[in-house]
Structure prediction request, 402 residues.
Amino acid sequence: MAAPGENMKINGDRLWESLMDMAKIGPGIAGGNNRQTLTDEDGVGRHLFQDWCVAAGCTMGVDQMGNMFARREGTDPDALPVYVGSHLDTQPTGGKYDGVLGVLAGLEIIRSLNDLGIKTKHPIVVTNWTNEEGTRYAPAMLASGVFAGMHTQEWAYAIEDSDGKKFGDELKRIGWQGDEVVGARKMHAFFELHIEQGPILEAEGKQIGVVTHGQGLSWTQVTVTGKDSHTGSTPMPMRKNAGLGMARMLELVDQIAWSHKPDAVGAAGHIDVFPNSRNVIPGKVVFTVDFRSPILATIKDMENTFRNEASRIAGAMGLDVAFEKVGGFDPVTFDETCVTAVRNAAERLGLSHRDLISGAGHDACWINRTTPTAMVMCPCVDGLSHNEAEDISQEWATRLEK
Ligand code: GLV
Ligand code: MN
Ligand code: MN
Prediction:
């Protein structure tokens, strides 16, 4: 058999066509996608993926969290499968590639092996993890977290979306609650391909990101309570303006992240204002603070500083404030053997590469706790992601194209 890079090549046109076909399901309003987890669109996307996998000769397993596992048999009955994959769910204003590339690239590996008549010793399993994004149901990477034993299934099933619909009920409703016990599968290794979602590879003209670490994350949901009252007739000294309290706390989030530069970031992407009426002083706001860093102590420090200072702001304004940790994981070090395998493969194939720390969370971050895991990244235009304009080139996505 020829060496990798000589004749073991994927069909880049086919991968690209599948990416574009998947993107037709749950189109966004600006050229991207809105295929949020456990929506009807998620269900349709899953069926399409399943049909493709079955056509490629795989058997599909689905676990009780809706995680999908498409298996191509190996030649050694004792060899544990090598897993590859990512997620098919998207942000409400998401791109076509975040997650989807990793799943469909896994499928393309299987299709290419079929074309080339190659049997592998280990089975290969392509995975679609449920609810990576965490928009509709916090936290992110929910089902890979249950798989890795970080959350219980009962807890996950009881999480509600903003309409009060429970995760477990919605999973059943779209028809993707499987029978398999979650986390029962044993893996030889797990690899996740993902777009970088940051600017480094493109800026440095590198083709491959070898992901050595992932930064950790902390999500704190904050509820500030004041009093709804008339914007015109309530005298300034009598106001209990929860919206203003939040504004001061958001400034604080930014200051805290800057004060830990260059190894920290912070923002609040989720904000709900009640009653959200032009002439009512907001009596309640709920928002989620997202702090991240590759250094665990920095995350803890940012969390604590925020809680202390936000409580002080609320106290000075006569507001109540409550904090709830709704998501988080510690910084991740990926498996050295798997990382080295990725780096060596890039080297052998003559692809330019550099080591990266992932800024985003990924299912690989949880699976790494149970299985030797690594990630591969490709560049994306302007480092833009979680935006419908997220873009990659076919060339970037398909380095081993024929
Ligand atoms: C997941 O996409 C995250 O990084 O929040
Ligand atoms: Mn992703
Ligand atoms: Mn994402």
Remarks:
- The mean pLDDT is 96.
- Residues 87, 98-99, 132, 194, 362 surround manganese (II) ion (ligand 2) (CB under 6 Å).
- The two ends are 16 Å apart (CA to CA).
